[in-house]
Amino acid sequence: MDELEALRIRDEVLQAMYWMRSEGLADAPSAQELARFLAVPATTLAPYLERFAADGYLQPSGGGYRLTQTGMEAGKRTFADEFADVTRAAHGECDDDCWCHDSPEEAARCLEERTTHVH
Known about the structure:
- The protein has 119 residues and is mainly alpha-helical.
- It has two domains: 3-78, Orthogonal Bundle (Arc Repressor Mutant, subunit A); 84-116, no CATH class.
- 61% of the residues lie in helices and 7% in strands.
- The chain has six helices and two strands, in the order H-H-H-E-E-H-H-H.
- It has helices spanning 3-22, 31-38, 42-54, 69-82, 84-87, 104-116, and strands at 58-61, 64-67.
- Strands 1-2 form a two-stranded antiparallel sheet.
- Strand 1 and strand 2 form a beta hairpin.
- Helix 1 packs across helix 4 and helix 2 crosses helix 3.
- The longest helix is centred in the first third of the chain and has 20 residues, at 3-22.
- The radius of gyration is 16 Å and the shape is elongated.
C-alpha cells in the first residue's frame, strides 16, 4: 500500500464520513455506501477502511464504520481545509468575531444565509 496514496484516501474517507454524519446521511456507512459516495469500487476501498480502523480513525460498527474521536477531528479539519475558500467571507460580509468562525457547519450556514439573502 503506497503511503502517500493511503494518506490521500484517508483524508477523502474521513472528510466524506464527517460530512455524511453532519448531514444526517449515515453515522456508520458500510464500505459499499462509502465506495458509491466516493465513486470507487468497494473492493478497492475495503483494505483502506480496515487500515484506518487499525490506525484508530474508524471503528467497525454494525457492518459499517464509525468515526472515532481522532477520525472525527481529522475529518472536520480536512472538511474545513477543503471548503475554506467557499466558506470564507468576502471583504465586508462579516468580521473576525462572526459566529460563522466557530465551525465548518456554521461557516457553511453563514455563507448560505449571505447568498440567499442578497440585498
